[in-house]
Amino acid sequence: FYHLTLPDYLDPSALSGDRDLATLADFLSPGGEIYDRRFSQEENRRLFRHYAEALTMRRKAQELVALFGGKVPHDMSIVPGGVTCRPSLGDIEAFRFRLREVRSFIEECYFPDVLLFVKRYSDYFDLGRVGNLLSFGGFPLPKNSQGLGGRLFPAGILLDGRVESLDAGEITECITNSWYEGKEVQHPKEEQAVPKPGKAGAYSWIKAPRYRRQPYEVGPAARIAIGLHLGDELLKSLANEGLREAGAALKDLSSVAGRHLSRAIEARYLALKMEEWLESLDPDGPVAVPFEIPEKGEGCGLTCAPRGALGHWIRIEEGRICHYQVVSPTTWNASPRDESGQPGPIEQALEGTRVQSDGLTEAGRIVRSFDPCLACAVQ
User: Which of 70, 135, 185, 305 could staple 310 via S-S, CB 3.0–4.6 A?
Assistant: First the structure.
């Protein structure tokens, strides 16, 4: 929010005369047209201050991961069967101290700032809408947990306002308009596609994931919307509070303003759940169970990454990986048109948008509301 989105909305000229923040003005100057900036001078200064503070909070959040994961972003402690490190009492207390700092920032800065944003840009609940939402769910729960399908964020789809269960066998990827050759539509566990630069009619290195041949938006809006139907009482309470304070409804989550609001709601929720999980850590408990690589087998792992639904499909023969396929969140959201000509979610969100500025401001704001990672989408 602060570092990849908010600069589109802030006016650096508001920092003139502010000795402490003046250096940010040069760093964040758009270098061109200043268009549709709705925050007052004092609101701009507040948000710029929090922009700087958020850099520190990002570092502290990364320290949380590094305490148990070794490094960020690619931690090295998770292995088949568990983890490689045993949490000491010192690690747990260090984690607790940093988590309290991060949670204070979420409650005192991030969530209020997002509410300010969606109130100043309330019309952005109507900008960049998509509709169909999908979540693989995430954060496995203890076996004795009831009613959530075994995951903190429940899996499912939201289609035409109705929540339905998810069937991973209905997921396909299409390469009709992607620079690959092979069978046009395949399930990821069987997919074989060879790069073909210059392919006639293609316009993207990203493939087109579909569920029952339909495009779906993935990400925080999907998790919160489906969670409002199937999640626990805390998630429902925080989501309803956020929607109420924003003057929005569930149907508004799949929009520019709704995606930012969903991330803020989710941050509040996960910070609270992390405090619970930390209390349950047993420094003397087991950290892994025995695991042997089979000679032959196949499987898939479906989870929620921050940007949305993440799937890995693997097949093993003679004890070695013979097939591996990844479908990342941005592959769903930034997908090109499929064999039926249906555009992906970001393309859908852009269609029909009235652009008022030469700098295509509205288009940029729509795309960045998805927090896309194109490198992830083509890996």
Answer: 305
